[in-house]
């Protein structure tokens, strides 16, 4: 924190400052420009990317680590900085057959949760490289691939990071390799959770592990985010340490608790986060938890179903049929569509069908519908997006 920021915070702390000054700063779905406590990992990634500064593309790579290790935060921040400082430079990019001095180098980060098909993958890369609008429909995947190949053949070179590879609804490593490796003047970095040995496909030879946060490092992350997003001294160090100890290296879950506790305290018009706020926020985070990034990347109609679901009482979630009826009464979707969405969400781990003890009409226990994500945090994120 620089001196200007320190003085500003002192001035604000003397007035009627809200407890939460910036929800984005404490949000588990937001990334900061300079991730805390990941210097060695950033150096390792820069070592891998070092060939670009000598005019060569790096080899393809696989970056991996457990949930909440900060993979997305690190890779996104690094590619954003490289895009700002290197993209469009006069760097000479050498290929196996020639050196081309007339092209530009680009760094493109793609989220596979939204670019979840070969079409989406090609479109996301192409959209980052060209100024004109890239169609979202009405054109085939092959045409988009050919257009991207022509763009690269015309003097461009690109390093593409594909984040969240291998999740229930995203392309796996083999799909990324099949669709990007044949393109000349393009290197890719796939980012996922499984260890290389656990993959069905052979990962590229360059493999970079991002381990889980150590507890003191996670506490530093929380302190940094709280400093940026909350009023001065809004949460005590003991509260930060408690969250970090509970989260056990998972930054997503830790930030979900920080966000939830701060929001609960703000709703009660308190100036500080209390221990009871942290307890309630911890209780709201399932373990294991579906990343909120996956939930907010869902199509709007499925997010709307999730938003209604989190407000249903236990009786209304006692079975898929009961949840379907309750949700249908609140949204402009047919019962068949709502039920299909609930089954899809269960198959991908966003919600869980928990077998009840009571038998249904045909002697089979009904399945209670339980969200597998932090509901209070999602509620706030969704409502803020819609301006509520």
From TrEMBL:
Residue ranges occupied by any Orc1-like AAA ATPase domain in the UniProt entry: 36-175
Pfam families xrefs: AAA_16 (PF13191)
Region (Disordered): 1-20
Alphabetized InterPro entries for the sequence: AAA_16 (IPR041664), P-loop_NTPase (IPR027417), WH_DNA-bd_sf (IPR036390)
Gene3D superfamilies per the UniProt record, alphabetical: 1.10.8.60, P-loop containing nucleotide triphosphate hydrolases
Protein name per UniProt: Cdc6-related protein, AAA superfamily ATPase
Top-level taxonomy: Archaea, Methanobacteriati, Methanobacteriota, Stenosarchaea group, Halobacteria
């Amino acid at each position: 924190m620089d001196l200007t920021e320190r003085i500003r915070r002192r001035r604000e702390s003397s007035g009627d400052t809200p407890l939460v000054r910036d929800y984005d700063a404490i949000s588990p779905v937001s990334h900061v420009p300079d991730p805390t406590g990941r210097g060695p990992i950033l150096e390792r990634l820069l070592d891998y990317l070092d060939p670009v500064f000598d005019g060569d593309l790096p080899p393809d790579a696989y970056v991996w680590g457990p949930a909440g290790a900060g993979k997305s935060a690190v890779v996104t921040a690094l590619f954003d900085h490289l895009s700002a400082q290197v993209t469009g430079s006069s760097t000479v990019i050498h290929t196996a057959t020639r050196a081309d001095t007339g092209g530009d180098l680009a760094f493109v980060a793609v989220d596979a949760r939204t670019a979840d098909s070969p079409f989406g993958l090609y479109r996301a890369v192409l959209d980052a490289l060209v100024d004109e609008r890239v169609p979202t429909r009405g054109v085939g995947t092959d045409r988009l691939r050919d257009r991207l190949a022509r763009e690269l053949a015309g003097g461009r070179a690109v390093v593409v990071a594909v984040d969240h590879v291998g999740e229930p609804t995203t392309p796996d490593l083999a799909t990324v390799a099949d669709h990007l490796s044949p393109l000349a003047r393009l290197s890719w970095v796939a980012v996922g959770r499984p260890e290389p040995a656990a993959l069905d496909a052979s990962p590229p030879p360059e493999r970079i592990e991002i381990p889980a946060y150590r507890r003191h490092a996670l506490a530093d992350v929380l302190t940094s985010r709280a400093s940026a997003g909350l009023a001065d001294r809004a949460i005590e160090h003991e509260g930060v340490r408690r969250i970090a100890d509970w989260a056990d290296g998972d930054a997503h879950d830790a930030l979900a608790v920080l966000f939830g506790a701060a929001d609960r305290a703000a709703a009660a018009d308190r100036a500080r986060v209390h221990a009871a706020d942290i307890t309630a926020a911890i209780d709201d985070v399932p373990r294991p938890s579906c990343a909120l990034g996956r939930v907010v990347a869902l199509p709007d109609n499925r997010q709307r179903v999730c938003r209604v679901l989190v407000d249903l009482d236990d009786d209304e979630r006692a079975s898929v049929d009961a949840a379907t009826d309750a949700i249908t009464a609140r949204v402009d979707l047919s019962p068949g569509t709502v039920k299909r969405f609930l089954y899809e969400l269960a198959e991908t781990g966003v919600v869980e069908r928990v077998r009840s003890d009571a038998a249904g009409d045909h002697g089979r226990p009904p399945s209670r519908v339980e969200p597998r994500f932090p509901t209070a945090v999602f509620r706030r994120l969704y409502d803020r997006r819609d301006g509520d």
